[in-house]
Amino acid sequence: MKMDNSIIPKVSVIVPVYNVEKYIHQCLDSIVNQTYKNFELLLIDDGSPDNCSQICDEYAKNDSRIKVIHKKNEGLMAAWIDGLKIAQAEWIMFVDSDDWIDLNMIEVMAEKTKIENIDIITANMVKVLLGKVNYREHYFEPGIYSESEIQKIMYPQMINNGKFQGRGVSVSRCGNFIKKKLLSENIHYCDKNIFFGEDLNIMFPIYLDCKKMCLLPNDITYYYYRNNQKSILHSYNKTMYKQVQDLYKILFRVSQEKNVYDFEKQLLADYLSAIVQSFKNELLNKNSRMQNICKMMEDERFILGVKNTNIDRYSILNKIIIKSMYKKCKIFLFLIIPMLSFLKKIKWH
Fold first, then answer.
1. Could you tell me the residue range of the domain that residue 190 belongs to?
2. What is the CATH number of the domain that holds 221?
3. Which residues sit opposite 124 in a β-bridge?
4. Per-residue confidence of the chain (349 residues) as pLDDT tens digits?
5. Which pTM was predicted?
6. Cα–Cα–Cα angle for 236, 242, 246, nearest 5°?
7. How many domains does the chain have?
8. Distance of CA 97 to the CA centre of its chain
9. Which residues partner with 213 through β-bridges?
10. Are residues 177 and 277 in the same domain?
11. Are both 250 and 315 inside the same structural domain?
């Protein structure tokens, strides 16, 4: 499709691309065939080792709205930041290259940008795993929230709503229209070396600056998130615990510097959940897992999280892990690791 280059696009769609040859056609087709046409599509090829680079170039040849940036591999956050630097539009939308969106999604969300002083527009997300879809609904009622309503209604449950990694708002950068200004003003908080919770890294400070937000009705349009079994939570990551520590240092700093609400207990609860994920990650470690788990048990912020968090709504398995780590039951933990390696595949309620 050809578009008049003198027309400034309403939205820049940024797609980081890496090793998704199997899925990228579905992703790009869902974007280029949108009912709404006034957008630019920025494909950031993050040194992909498969044929994604050539596929991106082929799409760009046939559609003047598409720009392809080829770069060395630096990770997801570095890729979308590079896309943000060249984005021309006032609004930013992120789509990961193994996901896809409804064909009317940009049109529906672009219409909401007419709302005065709106900063973030959020659609619902559908989780897709092995062909099965799980439709999620917003935790809060769909509608438009003013700054005072965001602070009064959303802040108290924004990062943690009492469940294990339960949040009042989605911390995914995908599925949103976000004012570019908000992203640009908070990009300095981002650590490109963080690969666990990288979306939370940018979305938390953005939410704290948001003056008006729109949650679209639950059944209007969807962002389809493909649950990748090869992701960080399904293979051993030797730096995960270090990344968790680095991420939450940033999040606590964000909370202190923005100073719009006391998020300490919510962040501690979320940190507690991240430590549990780090523990589960160590179950895949065949070398120094005992040493690494011992470090987590001595973690001052983990201990503080246990003391300040009600874990009654957590699963049985997560309760066992938290209580065992807190009480430093090393023998118990190390004896049941083989059992947990199996049980963690089962969803306990």
1. 11-226
2. 3.90.550.10
3. 222
4. 444 444 567 999 999 999 999 999 999 999 999 999 999 999 999 999 999 999 999 999 999 999 999 999 999 999 999 999 999 999 999 999 999 999 999 999 999 999 999 999 999 999 888 778 888 889 999 999 999 999 999 999 999 999 999 999 999 999 999 999 999 999 999 999 898 899 999 999 999 999 999 999 998 889 999 876 554 445 788 899 999 999 999 999 999 999 999 999 999 999 999 999 999 888 888 777 788 888 999 999 999 999 999 999 999 889 988 999 999 887 666 666 556 555 555 443 3
5. 0.90
6. 135
7. 2
8. 14
9. 120, 145
10. no
11. yes
